[in-house]
Write the structure tokens for this entry.
Amino acid sequence: MKQLFFSVYDGGIQFSLYDRKTGKQDNSPVSPAHVTYNDIVAYFESVKQRVLDDVPPKVTVEQQIQDLHAKLSAGRIKAWVVRPGLMPIYGKIPGR
């Protein structure tokens, strides 16, 4: 997942697109004397779509139910516990 990164340290400013999967950033630190607020805004505007394109799709309740049904049917879930007021907890029973 990509995210916008901004850091001020040791008299320098760094703003970049950070890729959490690879741990890489695409900009090096720059001196505050060589960058303006508009430079930072323009850069973030230029990479905005790359961030939005990297957001995982939202999973609907129906998809979650289908996934749970598939796991139950395949025998991958051996226990199902429902705690009052909370979402169900499911997983394998240790030692089985």
Summary: The chain has two domains: 2-53, 61-91. Residues 2-53 form one domain. The longest strand covers residues 2-9. Residues 37-53 form the longest helix (17 residues).
